[in-house]
């Protein structure tokens, strides 16, 4: 970026490096906002980068430095609305049809744009801060909530996120969207009605504490040993098992066991690296190649409810591993 001359009226643009330094602290929260809007970590990154570029190019328009945050959200919202124009709704396999059985034919995968994608906690969740606020932030990036947001028209989506998740005042949202407070309140009411009708409380996950961490450690151990009996003993009776890009999804320990011992037997012998995604536990699974190396094949988001695993969502996208800071290969 070329160095720009100082704009005394803004107090922000003192050259390329200073404005970039002023923008960078907002990257994580903007990524979280754009992820909730778009349902894809890759698209959220693109949206935030475009936001930063537009902000850098137009920094002389910011006459009140204290308004930098709201100005960035205005730009990010416009970027997201542009990206969502004409785009199809992202979803989870569970949102598209009834569950299947383990012996069902595995249909061809749908395009990546069909699915809500996972995102690393490090990209979207605040560091430190009030524990209650961090816990609330985790709830609003879990897969079920992000998928529910995709049911809302884009502007309603923005209103709900800004008002309910980020706790902006109605007047602030109205100014950002160039509309009236009454319009914001009406959009929020309609958005709440849609979300409330989805019964997300039934999919509430438990924060990972010591007991849950022990449960997850047992799950990883059972998976690496491919002890399917021990693995499914850790699941809720209504646990869901999905594998985008394929629309097939399963319910219950029996179906999961039948899949892992049937069509999914290629997972046997895998190695695992753990990580954090969508406010909870996740792992990258590496499949053996027969030459002493292991290659990425699935990024799994694991959900816990009470003392059992309630969801295992396997994203068969090796390109996700780099986004989570995971190596491209493991060795014995």
Structure summary:
With 332 residues, the chain is of the alpha+beta class. It has two domains: 1-87, Orthogonal Bundle (Rna Polymerase Sigma Factor, Chain: A); 91-151 and 198-332, Nuclear Transport Factor 2, Chain: A, CATH 3.10.450.
Tags for this entry?
332 residues; alpha+beta; Rna Polymerase Sigma Factor, Chain: A; Nuclear Transport Factor 2, Chain: A; 2 domains; 7-stranded mixed β-sheet; 15 helices; 7 strands; disordered N terminus
Quote the distance from N terminus to C terminus: 44 Å
The tally of beta strands, per DSSP, is 7
* CATH-level-2 architecture of the largest domain: Roll
Strand content: 15-25%
Number of domains: 2
CATH class of the largest domain: Alpha Beta
CATH topology group of the largest domain: Nuclear Transport Factor 2, Chain: A
Uncertain runs are: 1-11
| H/I helix tally | 15
**Which structural class should the secondary elements be placed in?**
alpha+beta
Order of helices and strands: HHHHHHHHHHHHHEEHEEEEHE
Mean pLDDT: 91
How does the major sheet shape up? 7 strands, mixed
Q: Which word captures the global form?
A: globular
Radius of gyration (Å) = 22 Å
Description:
This protein is of the alpha+beta class and 332 residues long. It has 2 domains: 1-87, Rna Polymerase Sigma Factor, Chain: A; 91-151 and 198-332, Nuclear Transport Factor 2, Chain: A (Roll). The chain has 15 helices and 7 strands. It has helices at 16-23, 27-38, 41-57, 68-84, 93-96, 121-124, 131-139, 143-149, 154-165, 170-177, 181-196, 210-225, 228-232, 253-261, 320-323, and strands at 235-243, 246-251, 271-277, 280-288, 293-305, 308-315, 330-331. Strands 1, 2, 3, 4, 5, 6 and 7 form a 7-stranded mixed sheet that branches. Helix 2 (27-38) packs across helix 3 (41-57), helix 2 packs parallel to helix 4 and helix 10 (170-177) packs across helix 11. The longest helix is centred in the N-terminal third of the chain and has 17 residues, at 41-57.
